[in-house]
Design a protein that fits this description.
Length: 215
């Protein structure tokens, strides 16, 4: 175990080395299972934004819309018509929000780089989407708590992120190679989070997580 290092999600202290490549080290929490990069090894905020600006997230790209539908379709099945949601970490081209608006939902936007107005973080929502976001969070405990507090009773949080399987798979996993990816969740991590927030949990496929707040 590594002394003086706390888990970024559960604040646990039983932290072990998980993997190391030529660029970074990766630690794993024995309590919640989060795999994470030590904060001292993060890239700068400027470099982080530059990486995001390389992403091609075109609203009219049919392939990208199909990708986002993996989260949107099961989420919409669970929402009432006209529900109001937040697209958290929407990026420079908020395609998911656009798709949800097309079918009658009201969607607010927030992104710390591209839509930094924090006004939407003071509202309440029926649903919150975070697609390909949580793996970038430097303070996942605080950010997820904040989002959860914005949900109305019975509301849904929909997350899309690739899941850690095991150490052998992690070693050859392309997902870890993005320098802005610093937190990696497993099924066990989401189960831990759901238990500690009285949330119902559904995991759909390889990367869609749905959490419902108690009514």
């Amino acid at each position: 175990m590594l002394g003086e290092i706390h888990c970024l999600l559960c604040k646990g202290v039983e932290i072990m080395s998980y993997f190391r490549d030529r660029n970074r080290s990766y630690l794993c929490c024995s309590t919640c299972g989060l795999v994470f990069v030590p904060p001292a090894e993060y890239v700068s905020r400027c470099a982080e934004k530059a990486e995001y600006e390389l992403h091609q997230n075109d609203i009219d790209d049919l392939g990208y819309r199909k990708f986002l539908s993996r989260l949107m379709s099961p989420l919409v099945e669970r929402l009432s018509p006209g529900a109001h949601g937040l697209d958290f970490g929407c990026g420079p081209g908020p395609a998911l929000a656009h798709m949800l608006r097309e079918i009658g939902f009201e969607v607010s936007l927030y992104d710390s780089f591209f839509v930094p107005d924090e006004g939407p973080l003071d509202a309440e929502y029926d649903f919150i989407c975070a697609t390909e976001v949580v793996e970038h969070l430097h303070r996942p405990a605080q950010e997820l708590e904040r989002l959860w507090s914005l949900l109305r009773p019975g509301g849904w949080m929909g997350v899309m992120t690739k899941l850690v399987l095991d150490r052998a798979a992690f070693a050859r996993w392309h997902y870890k190679n993005d320098p802005t990816h610093v937190c990696f969740f497993s099924v066990d991590t989401w189960r831990w989070w759901a238990r500690n927030h009285d949330a119902s949990l559904e995991i759909i496929g390889a990367d869609v997580i749905l959490l419902q707040r108690a009514s």
